[in-house]
Amino acid sequence: MRLAELQYDLPPELIAQHPVQRRDTSRLLVLHRATGQIEHRVFRECIEYFARGDCLVLNDTRVIPARFFCRRATGGRIEGLFLHEDPAGWRVLLKPSIRLRIGERLRCDGSDTALLLAERADRGEWLVRPEPAVVPLDLLARIGRTPLPPYIRRDERRAAPERECADAERYQTVYARQPGAVAAPTAGLHFTPELLAELVARGVHRADVTLHVGAGTFAPIEVDDLTLHKMHAEWFEVTAAAAATMQAARAAGDRLIAVGTTATRVLETLAQAGKDFAHDTGLRAATGWTDIFLYPPHRFRNVDALLTNFHLPGSTLLALVMAFASIELIRTAYRVAIEQRYRFYSYGDAMLIV
């Protein structure tokens, strides 16, 4: 597949800047792979497309307040994004980064903590060591902000506390439990507790997996040949209980419905582990890092239907949905969505591919 096949023109006014008032009133485009039929619904009506015995696979990662600001000794302001902790220190993105130097100390706004710049990596990533030592989530709880995607604009000069609180609540699924993501699994943002309860009452099963979404989810593909693209690795976990729920659905001949591209990547990572065995889907407890990249002509082994948002052109996420539904069907669905003025990206509308 070539990068040009992932491009499309989107009117900028269709990029959603704020969520709808109630989560489940987003619009829902339903795409039928077998026939190419497209339906226009409201998200809460997704329940009509799920049958008793189906298993929803949800990513229960929780977005942390990973965005922070710090100052150089000269007074220059630096924006930071916490990525993850490793044995050598913290991995963070810093910008502007070009003038920063190894050995320099940055003072975190709102704290007496300094970050020692220990090692420069690619694309603005740094290894830093906090002084004094501090648990990252404890520090970020005091000074961090919601790490909204770069295409969602907020006027920093006029940022109000209530606006930050609103984003902190809405840029989070209602079932988020495991802190560690720097971006939300946005397909799940449309669910309400009431809708999830109704699905369970109708006999739809639920399996929660975890994949901590990293900043790489926004990284554009920079090579023309997709086989040469290298994905950022992200940490995932599948518990024994979740694996058992998914195994039971498979054994009964029922569907696994992935809520989002992140849940999809977990499911196909498990399948990859069992790829040497014709009937082994790998649906068992697992934890580790995955850098799986799904693009045409990938054959999905553990996903029967996919609930997702509308994704950026040139992105790995768009490549994934094209692999699932075909390049031409997704091109058609996106063209129709633009004509019908659907809202795109993280705070936008949803698509169910069945």
What does this structure look like?
There is one protein chain. With 354 residues, the protein is of the alpha/beta class. The protein has two domains: 3-63 and 170-353, QueA-like (3-Layer(aba) Sandwich); 67-144, QueA-like (Thrombin, subunit H, Beta Barrel), CATH 2.40.10.240. It contains seven helices and 17 strands. It has helices at 136-143, 161-170, 193-201, 240-251, 261-273, 316-325, 327-339; strands spanning 27-31, 38-42, 55-59, 61-63, 67-71, 77-86, 89-95, 105-108, 114-120, 125-131, 178-181, 205-211, 234-238, 256-259, 286-290, 305-309, 350-353. It has a nine-stranded mixed beta sheet. A hairpin with a 6-residue loop joins strand 1 and strand 2 (38-42).
Please specify the SSE layout and strand pairing:
Blueprint: E1 27-31, E2 38-42, E3 55-59, E4 61-63, E5 67-71, E6 77-86, E7 89-95, E8 105-108, E9 114-120, E10 125-131, H1 136-143, H2 161-170, E11 178-181, H3 193-201, E12 205-211, E13 234-238, H4 240-251, E14 256-259, H5 261-273, E15 286-290, E16 305-309, H6 316-325, H7 327-339, E17 350-353
Parallel strand pairs: 1-17, 3-12, 3-14, 4-11, 14-16
Antiparallel strand pairs: 1-2, 5-6, 5-8, 6-7, 7-10, 8-9, 9-10, 12-13, 13-15, 16-17
